[in-house]
């Protein structure tokens, strides 16, 4: 079968589904042709974009995080969602940095662990984690190392900069009073009186 004949068969299947939905009195039915094994084939991107556009705001974030296919709209939505999470996550890391004891040599610092987990989530959501890159390399017939070189991932550089920063400033261990600024001021004032 030629590509034109195959496309004609797909159009007939889609039109048949549409006609049957209309006969069942379903107003304005949306019919999408998708391939379970290849999300880049047919109309998976169109289906994903329609779902994201039609779903309520409460469910939108969860849906965006679970969609595996990459269209321009879903990548932009994932980027916006990851960007919105950044403020809360960096605040958590700052609190962990303030309350962590930096003398533990055998354990990774809490703030670095929090930020590392978030970086891994962003990489997974944006399709630049190891598994996603292996799939891309396989599909395009490219060596995985070439993909890494072209991507020039900054993750290790960022983590190395964290380590260098903390190595310089490891002498300061904040007390618990730093996390309660109002109480600290109260006790300082009281001792002054």
TrEMBL record:
- One GO MF term: GTP binding
Pfam families documented for this protein: IIGP
Name the domain of life: Eukaryota
Which organism does this record belong to? Dreissena polymorpha
GO cellular component terms listed in the entry, alphabetical order: membrane
Q: Which InterPro entries match?
A: Immunity-related_GTPase-like (IPR007743), IRG (IPR051515)
Q: Can you name this protein?
A: Uncharacterized protein
């Amino acid at each position: 079968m030629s590509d034109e004949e195959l496309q004609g068969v797909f159009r007939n299947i889609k039109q048949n589904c549409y006609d049957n939905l209309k006969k069942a009195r379903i107003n304005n039915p949306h019919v999408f042709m998708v391939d379970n094994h290849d999300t880049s084939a047919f109309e998976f991107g169109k289906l994903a974009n329609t779902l994201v556009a039609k779903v309520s705001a409460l469910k939108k974030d969860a849906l965006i995080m679970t969609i595996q296919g990459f269209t321009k709209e879903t990548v932009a939505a994932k980027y916006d969602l990851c960007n919105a999470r950044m403020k809360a996550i960096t605040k958590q890391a700052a609190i962990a940095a303030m309350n962590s004891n930096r003398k533990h040599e055998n354990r990774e610092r809490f703030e670095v662990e929090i930020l590392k987990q978030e970086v891994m989530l962003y990489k997974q959501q944006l399709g630049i984690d190891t598994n996603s890159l292996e799939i891309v390399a396989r599909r395009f017939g490219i060596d995985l190392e070439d993909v890494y070189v072209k991507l020039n991932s900054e993750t290790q550089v960022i983590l190395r900069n964290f380590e260098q920063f903390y190595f310089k400033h490891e002498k300061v261990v904040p007390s618990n009073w730093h996390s309660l600024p109002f109480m600290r001021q109260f006790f300082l004032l009281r001792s002054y009186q």
